[in-house]
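Consider the following input, taken from an annotated entry for Sensor-like histidine kinase SenX3 (Paractinoplanes bogorensis).
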Amino acid sequence: MFLVGVAVVVAVYGGLRSNQRENAERVMDQRTAMVEAAVRTETERYRSLIETTAAGISTDTDLTWDDFDTATAPLASANLIGGASLAYVVPAREAQIPEVQRQWRARGAEGLTLRPVVAGEEHFFTIFTRTLNAYSPQMNGLDVAAAPEAATALTDSRRTGQPSVSDTYVLLRDRNLPAAEQQRSFVFAAPIWTQASIPVFRGWIILGLRGADFLRGVLATVSQGQLDGELLATGRDGGRPVVADYTVGGQPDLQRSVDILVADREWTLITRADASHLPGASSTLPLTLLLTGSAMTFLLAGLVYVLATGRERAVARVRVATAELRVAEEESRRQAELLGAIMASIGDAVGVVDENGAFLLHNPAARKMLGVAADEDDPASWQQHYGLYRPDGRTPFPVEDLPLMRALRGESCDGVEMIVRNAQHSEGILVSVDGRPLDTSAGRHGAVAVFHDITELRRYENDLAVFAGVVAHDLKSPLTVIRGHCEAAVEDLDDAPADARGSLGRIILAVDRMAALIDTLLAYTTARDAPLRTREVDLGALVGAVVHDRTAHLRDEDQPHIYVGPLPAVTADPAMLRHVLDNLLGNALKYVQPGTVPRVDVTAHGTGGPWVRIQVADRGIGIPDDDKPDIFDSFHRAHAEAGYAGTGLGLAICRRIVERHGGEIDVADNPGGGTRFHFTLPISQESDMTKDDEAATRAALERALAERAAMENARLPGLGALPAAEPSAHDPAAARLRTPVPDHHPAPAGPE
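Applying the prediction step yields:
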């Protein structure tokens, strides 16, 4: 007894020491989370402040120094950690510099001298400046174009209409300081657009942020002197330079790294700490417990010896315990019998395996559905023993992808389809399997699977698909005949009254609308029921093809301004994804004020995970706030009264397609006017494959899909029925071409 007690005390001592380490890890996670939250909060506050300031200044058509001073005075006491200065910046071409200088001197910029530093077509001058700390003097008239990093951020901000953050560099105002006092810094830039119906660009509000001061201020406040820190910023060229570091001493043995999205840039914060400096990582409790436990073990061993001499009492207690054990055993037996009766009587097929894959339970419905009387306890033999195949009926189902194996790995899955074909089911049956992990009260791990025979359901769906295709054909055939007769009548009735010819024209338009509605309804059904044929899709090439289809037929003077940023490869059904892009771009080109050249930006941003966020922003007529909650509903049209044609199903189809890919789609206002649609898609995980591997994988996928299609009696109409946004009197991009070309159109000269 004494030896066992000592062993337990030693084990507890080791557990406490391990717990101290776990406490240190947990405290490290908490401190890092606090620092991350502080950095996110502060950077979001900087972005929000300059965006709000820009919005306020945009309402003042004749901005003066007094106006700027009043608008920015609260920022001087806002405790902006690391903030150097806030400035109002305007663009000016070489020939405009004298006039711009006279204009802003007249508005209160005393002694303003615009000093172009670099040769270039356009310069960016600071007009009004507010310093945010004592050692930052006012420096009006600086040419921000002298810093390529800041100039790029200003250009991006003006183009997108959103705040932007520069790559790291030394601020122009700090370049006269000694090298030891210079810091790598950033500028936040927010564009200023007028509130007119056709916005006019007026300049930027920029905020200079010193990286070392910012990191030091955040860590000193939040980490309580326990964390080292290092801040890295991902530049537009893909590099990740170290912006600043902060050291508190010790021997760091813990490290964490978090990525933080700041406006349109990504920063990386690395924290380190010495575990012995963190709360809960060191104390005398384990040693005290070891000594105290050893003493108590000695006393307990003596007490047990005394109690063991009372034989009769010990025997009586054993009898009582044995009786209770027999009662518990009987209750367990009854529960097991009840569970067996329930499993034998239910119609759903259920199978349960232990952590090694050995079957613990197969109810009668499962044995009948699988068609094999004897169970196989080796998972490697399941495919051959039960005859399990992919839905194409030929490809053996990989063991690692079986629902029970996925459930044993802790992954839940629903609706996994497979073919069961063996001696009992020679023709094969299609089953849908749901798998779940299983933890028993005894601490054993396992998995449970429920099987559903969906053979008849799939036949019904196929029959319904054929029926839908036949109905669509039978509906469109009479419409084609009507249209043909009307066109013939128009050609033959040259001398007929204008009213008669106009009536025939209206009949033709009605026939076209009916045919388009039939196509749209088929596409609406297809987006929900057609099988997803996902593969790696070059999003840039696909957008380029859609842009070409929409604009290739237009004259040069009618070409819209379309900007397409860098786009990654995604995993998607290319036909369905093309429809989403075609619909959103078609809407952006259609819903504009008459006589206005459409402007569209297509960009992509990471989400910090395996998803990418694609954004289509326009400068059109926008969507009323009351319509935004319903814009993705079927047959909802926000601008029907304005004469814009459409069926009200385009965005509903887009939502179905995006959600079938596991993503989300939403809409918001564009700060510069117009609408901004955004949706998420999974990033392709195959982009690092070699060309040979990629070709082999694509060929195997195409073979599997072809084999599956061959065994189906019929399928839903193809995605060729997916319609584009319906053309209207305002739509300059109604043609449908099919040759992909690069997308970029030149940006307009001068301020937007």
